[in-house]
Specification:
The protein contains one helix and 30 strands. The chain is mainly beta. The N and C termini lie far apart (43 Å). Keywords: Signal.
């Protein structure tokens, strides 16, 4: 891949070459990048808000310094690869970069133009990778904290570190608006912790809205888009593909999930996987192709309701998989809590429940 000159962040200090942009408009030239060529579903206007950027501050004195001194403004990033030189401690996690609550978000110059990564071979944190279920991997390339945060127009790229880690983690926020983001080649090796890592991890948030997102596991990913302990999340026009070891979309212990025009393609396990998900949830025009399971729902604590609207049918049916057991316990998710809507009408005759 042809790469622009990058700035390496070392011990929290760096100087970025400034690219002056007019507002948030990306230059017309398109870089050579596999992330920029991934096809997307056609967005549905009005389904997911992208957030208002408002006042911005340019990252002209280093990414970390700009974030720390943003004064609740959005940090505007130039077209650069911003490469961190290790995972560093950050409030219980280890991260390449952290967007603190002092900044109201980050807006890049566009996918394939502003790219975050950990510089190849620079991690010294292999010893911090946990062993044994249910311990989870706490390393991420980029972590975002804060409420009403806007994220837009950048990519997160996996690199070889000799160990597993996560991509983009959004942590304990409310009202997130994230759009035009690509994550690629984040390494994992299992469908459960600690080998299950996430390209994107929406963790303990409320009211998040994501749109125009691609998570490309590139054959090395575990689970693509993870939602863990979050409520009232909406995901629009998002593709999760080629996550070899895990799920396209993995929802755990969350509620109020809504996916609109989302696609899960070529993932090792379920395309859309729900575990311990409660409340009212909806999949509108979901597409699951080339996964071990299309939609799979497991719950050892109770049951949720799932409304599936106008999905493509296979052999005249839509299949939902309900395992008999989950975590060694009976699966309590009720088939009666799953409704298939086709052409505006309930169609229980077209819904097929499969068990194993």
């Amino acid at each position: 891949m042809v790469r622009r000159r990058s700035s390496v962040v070392r011990n929290g200090l760096c100087v970025l070459v400034v690219l002056v942009l007019s507002g948030c408009t990306s230059p017309a030239a398109q870089p050579s990048s596999p992330l920029a060529t991934v096809p997307l579903p056609t967005p549905v206007p009005g389904q997911c808000a992208t957030g208002t950027v408002g006042r911005t501050v340019p990252a002209d004195d280093g990414f970390r310094r700009a974030v720390a001194n943003a004064g609740r403004r959005v940090v505007r990033l130039p077209a650069r690869t911003i490469a961190f030189d290790d995972f560093t401690p950050a409030n219980g996690t280890l991260d390449g970069g952290v967007v603190l609550a002092s900044a109201r978000g980050i807006v890049g110059a566009g996918v394939g133009r502003t790219v975050f990564e950990v510089a190849p071979g620079t991690s010294t944190r292999a010893g911090d990778i946990p062993t044994g279920f249910p311990n989870t991997n706490q390393l991420s390339v980029l972590k975002v904290d804060g409420d009403r945060t806007v994220l837009r127009g950048f990519a997160v790229q996996g690199t070889d570190q000799g160990h597993l880690y996560n991509g983009l983690r959004v942590d304990h926020g409310s009202g997130l608006r994230a759009s035009q983001i690509r994550v690629a080649a984040i390494p994992g090796d299992a469908a459960s912790p600690p080998g299950e890592t996430f390209g994107i991890n929406d963790y303990r948030t409320a009211g998040s809205q994501w749109s125009d997102v691609v998570v490309d596991g590139a054959g090395v990913g575990a689970s693509g888009f993870g939602v863990n302990n979050s409520t009232d999340i909406t995901i629009c026009s998002t593709l999760s593909k080629q996550n070899r070891y895990g799920m396209g979309f993995a929802f755990w212990q969350s509620s109020g999930v809504r996916c609109i025009d989302c696609r899960a393609i070529g993932n090792g396990r379920a395309g859309f996987n729900f575990e311990r998900v409660t409340g009212s949830n909806e999949l509108v025009r979901p597409v699951a192709i080339g996964n071990a399971y299309g939609v799979r729902i497991s719950n050892d604590l109770g049951t949720g309701t799932f409304r599936i609207v106008d999905p493509p049918l296979t052999d005249g049916h839509f299949v939902v998989t309900l395992p008999y057991r989950y975590n060694g316990r009976p699966n309590l998710q009720k088939a009666s809590g799953i409704t298939l809507i086709v052409g505006g009408k309930p169609r229980p005759d077209l819904l097929r429940i499969e068990r194993y």
